[in-house]
């Protein structure tokens, strides 16, 4: 193209890219599920960091007595000049009590509080540096020792699926044989559909995407719930050093797609769908909350106006 015909707006994507990289990115990930399912180990494995080094481990008796609380762990990660502010929201005490009735409520309240804070900041005068603490994704860990979803699993996911992107995880996949993993996955998918639970829906691929990406995307969709193993231990396997777990019968490699779905989960969560998780949070879950707030405010204004009108008469 002749320079005289070149305006320059073709550089806009580069400008946006530079500005975004300079500003950095943020992502808030919630992990939920009963104790002992490897939540902390998996998070550390996913992001190659140690977010829980100061954590105090509780005994079984202490866990039973513990109420559900919300804890946050934030860390700044940098990779090839790209900065990510990662916040992990944990839910210790969830599902550990003798009576777990409505133990999802503190989790739902926390998500709503983040929406409320963002709504207030967005409605204020100074909106330049709004901190986004909205929860973009919830990894919900399902025990491998049951026959599928427990009533608590169903109750939790149904209570939260309108508030947050839920990604179901079949925990501790190394305790199951490959046929058992497939049977449990199928059973969980059937129950998710039966109970009307809305888990995170992968967006449809654009028609111009290459075939490799479409095949990868299809493989990710078919892997839900992701059967995972977490480990931060490096072991020797066939002359290679790999992250995995050493058993008397052999080694389970965390990053071997033939052993578990860890790589697929990391690909989805970080490499291909992190931005979509944030977009769905903003455009669907937060907008639903915002619409409810505005409707409530409108009803209050109308009610007050009618009350004043009646008092004048």
UniProtKB/TrEMBL annotation:
<keyword id="KW-0342">GTP-binding</keyword>
<dbReference type="Pfam" id="PF00735">
    <property type="entry name" value="Septin"/>
</dbReference>
<feature type="domain" description="Septin-type G">
    <location>
        <begin position="23"/>
        <end position="296"/>
    </location>
</feature>
<dbReference type="InterPro" id="IPR027417">
    <property type="entry name" value="P-loop_NTPase"/>
</dbReference>
<keyword id="KW-0131">Cell cycle</keyword>
<dbReference type="GO" id="GO:0005737">
    <property type="term" value="C:cytoplasm"/>
</dbReference>
<dbReference type="InterPro" id="IPR016491">
    <property type="entry name" value="Septin"/>
</dbReference>
<keyword id="KW-0132">Cell division</keyword>
<protein>
    <recommendedName>
        <fullName>Septin-type G domain-containing protein</fullName>
    </recommendedName>
</protein>
<dbReference type="GO" id="GO:0005856">
    <property type="term" value="C:cytoskeleton"/>
</dbReference>
<keyword id="KW-0963">Cytoplasm</keyword>
<keyword id="KW-0547">Nucleotide-binding</keyword>
<keyword id="KW-0206">Cytoskeleton</keyword>
<dbReference type="InterPro" id="IPR030379">
    <property type="entry name" value="G_SEPTIN_dom"/>
</dbReference>
<feature type="site" description="Important for dimerization">
    <location>
        <position position="145"/>
    </location>
</feature>
<comment type="similarity">
    <text>Belongs to the TRAFAC class TrmE-Era-EngA-EngB-Septin-like GTPase superfamily. Septin GTPase family.</text>
</comment>
<dbReference type="GO" id="GO:0005525">
    <property type="term" value="F:GTP binding"/>
</dbReference>
<dbReference type="GO" id="GO:0051301">
    <property type="term" value="P:cell division"/>
</dbReference>
